[in-house]
Specification:
This protein has 180 residues and is an all-beta fold. A five-stranded mixed sheet has the order 9-15-14-10-11, with no helix packed on it. A four-stranded mixed sheet has the order 2-8-7-5, with no helix packed on it.
């Protein structure tokens, strides 16, 4: 009398997740197979640490759905599942006070842009609406001067317009206090 062994394979992974741009997340999988000879194959593997392992790390720049196919090499059964990693691009941080007194601490004022920021335009205006500083360079800081002279302590308005590497455009506005 012949025996027929019926086996089933299932694969589970983490729930969908949300990360900030630049973050890395571990994608864990669990299979139901009693066999240890399992082959894994991931889609969109260019943003994974490996495309053929059970638990890769993901660092996508955009929201990405990863699908893993697990194949039991003993039984030939395959199963697949997917997980979506949503990528958020938060506003860039802009300080609200600076002290351009040449003490080496907090002497310049600029938005603290990340590598995810492209094409930034940063402007600072005085209380009369006069443009006192402008730059497109994410590293260039306003030193608290206008036409080569120190500005008086006070509140200045700033506007920063930028886009992210994913093409999303943003504009932020606020004020900064110059202290001397």
């Amino acid at each position: 009398e012949d025996e027929v062994l019926v086996t089933d394979l299932s694969v589970l992974t983490i729930d969908n997740q949300v990360i900030q741009i630049g973050e890395t997340i571990s994608i864990q999988t669990i299979t139901s197979s009693v066999n240890s000879d399992i082959t894994y194959s991931w889609t969109n593997s260019e943003t994974l640490t490996c495309g053929d392992c059970p638990n890769p790390f993901a660092a996508p720049e955009n929201t990405t759905t990863y699908t893993v196919t697990a194949t039991d090499n003993v039984t030939g059964c395959s199963a697949l599942t997917s997980v979506t990693i949503e990528v958020e691009y938060p506003d860039i941080y802009v300080p609200n006070v600076f002290t351009p007194d040449d003490d080496g601490l907090n002497d310049g004022f600029n938005p603290l842009a990340t590598e995810a920021v492209n094409n930034m335009l940063f402007r600072v205006y005085n209380r009369w609406g006069e443009l006192v500083f402008e730059t497109r360079d994410t590293e260039t800081k306003w030193d608290g001067t206008f036409h080569g002279k120190d500005c008086n302590p006070g509140v200045f308005v700033w506007v920063v317009v930028y886009d992210f590497i994913n093409g999303e455009k943003r504009e932020q506005k606020g004020n900064v206090t110059l202290l001397r």
